[in-house]
């Protein structure tokens, strides 16, 4: 599970933030869809985690933040985006706590990105 989190979930979560910060709303929307899909695959790959149905847990904590992020991205609303992004991060943290992974705390990316993505350059 940690490989999926580090290799798929975490980068997509960060890319959504980086895209919004760069004003690349199209890429933020794209990565939001990818993040939703990645969480779905995680739940299918790990249907139970510590006697907890992981797909149900994921759905219950991410449903509203995902909806709020989509609305903020569609509206290109920086303030609502920040609030929804923080809510998604807190949803992630609630799962980590519930599954005894309290040492993993997710928040807003800080510092320079390690990504080679160029935001806002599509079609140029």
Characterize the structure shown:
InterPro entries: Cyt_c/b562. It comes from Bradyrhizobium rifense. One of its GO terms (molecular function) is heme binding. It is a single chain. The protein is mainly alpha-helical. The protein has a single domain (2-98), classed as Four Helix Bundle (Hemerythrin (Met), subunit A), CATH 1.20.120. The protein has helices at residues 2-21, 25-45, 54-75, 78-98, and strands spanning 48-49, 52-53. A two-stranded antiparallel ribbon has the order 1-2. Helix 1 (2-21) runs antiparallel to helix 2. The chain is globular and about 45 Å long. The termini are far apart.
Keywords, separated by commas or semicolons:
124 residues; two-stranded antiparallel sheet; heme binding; globular; 68% helix; Four Helix Bundle (Hemerythrin (Met), subunit A); mainly alpha
Number of alpha- plus pi-helical segments? 4
- Assembly status: single chain
In CATH, the architecture is Up-down Bundle
How are helices and strands ordered from N to C?
A: HHEEHH
Low-confidence stretches: none
Total discrete domains: 1
Shape: globular
User: Which bin fits the share of residues in helices?
Assistant: 55-70%
Structural class given helices, strands, pairing?
mainly alpha
Strand tally:
2
Look at the structure and give the mean pLDDT: 93
The Cα radius of gyration reads 14 Å
